[in-house]
Amino acid sequence: MDWQDFLSVLPFIIVAGWATILLLVDLWIPANRKGITAGLAVLGLIAAIAAVISRFGIEREAFDGMIIVDGFSSFLQLLFLGVGVIAIAQAYDYLRRRDIERGEYYILLLYSLSGMLLMASAGDLIVVFLAVELLSIPLYVLAAFAIPKADSEESALKYFLLGAFASGFLVYGIALVFGSTGTTALSGMVAAIESAETTPILLLVGSGMILVGLGFKVAAVPFHMWTPDVYQGAPTSVTSFMAVGAKAGGFAALLRIFISALPGAAVMWMPLTMWIAALTMAWGNIAAISQTNIKRMLAYSSIAHAGYIFMALPAAATPEVAPEAVRAALFYLVTYAITNLGAWGVVLAMEKAEGSGLEIEDYSGLGKKRPALALAMALFMLSLTGIPPTVGFMGKFYLFQVVIDANLIWLALVGVVTSLISAYYYLRVIVVMYMRDGEPEVRSEALLNSTIFITAFGTFFFGILPGFLLKMINQVSLLDLFR
Amino acid sequence: MVLLEVVQGGGLFAYAPLIIALPILGLITNIIFGRRLGERFAGIVASGVVALAFVIAILQFLALQAHPEGVTIPIAEWISVGSLSVSWAIKVDTLSTTMMLMVTGVSTLIHIYAIGYMHEDVRFQGDPGRYTRFFIFFNLFVAAMMVLVSADNYLMMFVGWEGVGLCSYLLIGFWYEKGEDGIGNAVAGKKAFITNRIGDFGFLIAMFLIFGAVGSLGFEEVFDWAHAFGEENVLIISVITLFMLLGVAGKSAQLPLFVWLPDAMAGPTPVSALIHAATMVTAGVYLIVRSNPLFSVTASTSNIVAIVGTATAFFAATIAVGQFDIKKVLAYSTISQLGFMVAAAGLGAYVAAIFHLINHAFFKALLFLASGSVIQGIEAGHHHAEHEGADIEEPFDPQDMRNMGGLRSRMKVTFWVYLIGALALSGFPPLAGFFSKDEILVDARLENPALFFLLLAAAFLTTFYMGRQVFLVFFGKARSEPAAHAKENPPVMWVPLVILGVLSVVSGALNLPKIHTLTDWLGTTIEHVHITEFSFSVAGLAVVFSIVAVVLAWMIYGRKPIEKGEADPLRKILGPIFVGMENKWWVDELYDFLFIRPYVAICWFLADVVDWRILHDWFHDSVLASAYRNGSQWLAQVFDLGIIDGIGNGLGNITKGASQRLRFVETGYVRNYALAILVGGLLTLTYFIFG
Q: How many domains are contained in chain A?
C-alpha cells in the first residue's frame, strides 16, 4: 500500500470526503439559500472530474487488487460524474418548487455517486458489495425526500425492503463464491477457475445469486417489479438520477464480474443472461404500452433499456466479441444516460408544484406552447425508440451489431421487434404533444432548460457524429485479469 | 521578435479554423441576442466577426510567407464508408488564402455599409427581427464561402457551394413579401435557386465521376492521379471537366445559365454587391482554377471553357447597353466580367483569372454599393419631395436611370467613387481593371485570335455602357422630382465606398508587369502558371478602344443630355438591335418557350391526364376498385372473418392484452414483488444446478 494506491481512488476520496465536509458546512448555510450547497457540490464533482481526467489512460491495480484502475473504470466514472452534475442542476429548482429544499439532498447525492465511482473500479467482490450498499442507501433516503408525502414514503420503503432482500442474495452469492474459490478478488477467481481448484456447484450457485442481486439493481426481469412503483413515487429529480446512475452502476459491476472474472463459466451463464435480456426487453416494452402516467411509462422504458444493455453479456460470452461487447454496452449506457436525463428533465419541467401534470395527456398542446421544449422531448422519444439521427439509433446499431457478431441472431431479432413495439408508446408522446390541443402549464427555469438543451444537443450531435464518442470508447477496455 | 518567430514557425496556421468559426459565432450570437439587443448590436457583432475573420486571413497570409507550400489542417473525419473517406479539413495555401483575404476584406466593408443601408431601406419598417435576420444570413454566407474556399476536397467544397447558394436564395428573397404582385422577389429567389440546381447537378455528376475514376475526393489525391494517369484518361477527365463547367455556368452565371443573376438584383443592394458581384459568383472561377491539374490535361474542355467565357462576356455586354435599371446594367456587366475570368481560366491564364477576380471584386462591389447609395439618395429625395407636395408620377421606380440625372452635384462622394469604379471597370490605366484585363487579352491573342477580338469588342462595350450610365445618372439635369431632391447618405455608407475606391485604384499593383507579385505568389499552388509579358500593342489598342467608347458615349448622352420623357437616342441609331438589347435578346422568353412551358405542360399532362383522369378516374376507380371490391367481397366473407381477422387483430390485441395483463401482475404489494425475485432467483439456481 503506497501513496499511489490512494491516488487511484482519488475521485472516490474527493467525492465522499467532500460530501462529509459539506454535511458540516451545510449547517451554516441558511435554509433559503441551499443553492450554495448545490454549487459547492458541483465544485466537488468538477474536482473529481479533473482527478479522473488526469489519470486517464493509466492501468493499474491498487490495494492488492481491491481497486482496479483502467479505461473502463475511468470512462464510467466520467459518466457518473457528468450525470451527477446534471442531476444537481435538475434538482435545484425542482426542490424549491416542491418545497423540499434541504441541503442534505446534494450531500446524499454525492454519497451515492461515491458508491458508483467505487463500483466502477471495484476489483474485489467485497468492494462490489460495499459499493452497492454505498450507492443504494443514500438513494433509499432520497426516494423518501418528499416526506411526509405518502407516495414518496411508500416508494422509499418498497425500494429499501426489496433492495435489502436483493442485497441478501448478493452477499450470500459472494460468500458461496468465496467458499468455492477461496478468494473474493476477481483476479484470484480467474486463477482459481483456471486451475480447477474450485467446487463447481458452489461457484455456480454463488454466481447465480450475484446475478440476482445485481439484476435487481439494473431492473432486469424478473427482478424488476419495484421499478415502476419506486420511480413513480420518488421525487422526479431523484428518479432521474436513480434511473440513470444506479442502473449504470449495476451494469458496471455486472460487466466487470461476469466478463472479466467469470469467463471460465461463460458456458453456464450465457444462456441464462440471454433469456433475461430477451425477457426484459419484451416485458418492459409491452408493459409500457398501457401506461398513462409518464413516470411509469419511462420506468418501464428503463426496464426495457436494461434488457438491451443486458444483451452485451451473452454476446461477451464469445471471447473474440467480448471487448467490443463491453464497448457497445458502454456506448449504450452513454446514449441511455444522455437521452434519459433529457426526457426526465422535460418531465420535471412539466410537473406542477403539487406533483401533478404527470399524465401523458397533460402534454397536449406542448408543441404549440413551447416548441423548443416539445422538439427536445420529440428528439428524446425518437432516441429512445432508436430512430436516426439520434444517438439512440447509434447505440442500438452498435449493440445489435455486436450481438449479431456473437451469432445470437434471434436475440438481435427480439431486440429489433421489441424496439418496433416501443415506437408505439414513445411516438404517442409526440402525437399528444403536437396533435392534441391543450394548454399545458410549463415551467421555464434556466438551469433545467440548460440541462435539457445540453442533453438534446448531445442526443442530436452524437447521433450525427458519433465518431467523437466512439474514438474515446475504442480506447477503453477492461483490465485483462488473465495476466 | 517573438512575433517573427511565431510567423516563421507556421504556428499561425493553427488559427485557420477560426475563419469559419467566427462568422458562425457571430450568427449564433445574433440568433440568440440580436432581436433583443437591437439593430446597432446586431450590425456591430456581424461586422466585427467578419473583420476578425479578415484578421485571421491576414495571419494566414503572414504564415504563408515563411511556408509558401501551405498546410492542411484536419478538423474531423466526416464520412467513412467503404472506400469513401472524406475528412473535414482546412486547406491553407496561397490560392485559398488569396480568396479568404479578398472575401473577408470585401465582406467587412459591405457589412459596415449594410448597417447603414438596411436601416435606411424604405422597405425596412423598424422590425429588429428582420434587421437581425439580414445579418444572420450575411454571416452565414461568409461562413459558407469560407468553407468553399478552404475545402481540401470536392465534397466539402460542395457543402460550401450549396451553402452560399442557399444564402443567395434567402437574401434575394429577403423582402419576400415585396416585388411584383407581392411575390416578385420570392420568384426571383426561386429562379436563382432552380437555375443553380441545374449547375449543381453538373458538379455532382463530376464529383461522382471523380470518385469512380480516382476513388477519392481529396484535391491532393485527385491531382496526383491526374499527374500520373492523366494522359491515358483524357476522355474521362474531359467528361468530368465538362460537367464541372455546367456547375461553373450555374454558379458564375455563364451561358446558358446566366439568366438568374439579373433577377437576383431583387435582393437588397449589399447582397448584390457581396454575393452577386464580388464573391459567390466567382466560386465557379475558383473551382476551375483550383482544378487546374484536371483542366490543363484536357485541351478540348479548356477550349470550350474559353469559348463559353468569351461568348458570355460579349453577349452580356450587349445586353448591358440596352438596360435602364441602374442595377441591371451592373448585373449584366458582372456576367460579362465573369465571362472574362472564365475565358482566362479556359485559356490557361489561371493567374490572370484570379487577378481579374480580385480587381473585379473591388470595383464591382464599389459600383454596386455606390448604386445603392444612389438609389437610397433618390428614395430619400422621393420622401422629401412627397413631403413638399411635389407632383410625382406613380408608380415611381427609384432604380430607373431615366428618372435620374444631375446627381453629380447633390451626391458628390457617390459621384466620385462611382466614376473611379467605372474607370477601373473600363480598364483605364493605371486603375485596377487595366492590368488584369490586359493580361487576359494578351493571353487570348496568343492562344486564339478570334476570341481576342470578341473580348476586345466586349471591353469596348463595357466602357460604352459605363459611360452611358455615368452620363445618364450624374450629368445633365434631374429628370424627376425625387432626383432633384436627392441627398448624400451618412458616413457609415460612404466611408466603405471610399475605401473600396482606393482599392480599385491601387489593386492593379498586385501583379504589375515585370514584377509579377501575384504570379509568383500563386505559383506555389497553381501548377500551370506562365508569366504574361506586358504588350504595348494590346494595351494601346484596348486603351484606344476605351477612349473611343467614352467619346461615343459622351456624344450620345453627354453632349446633349436626354430630357424628361425623351427616348434613348441609341434607339434611333441602332434600331431593332437596341430593341434586342433592351429585351435581353429574349433569352428568358426563349427559355420560357423551350423549357418552362413544355415542362409545365408535361406536369399538367402527368398530373391531370395521366394521374387524375387515367390512373385515378379510370384505372383506379373503374378497374382496380371494382375488381378489388368484388374480390374483397369474397375475401371478406370467407377469408377475413375466419383467418385474417384472427391474425391481424390478434397480433395487436395480443400485445395490448399482454400489456394489460402485465399490469395486473404489478400489484403494488412488496410481498408479491419479493416473491417474484425469489422465484426468479430459484429458477436461476435451478438452471445453474441442473442445466
A: 1
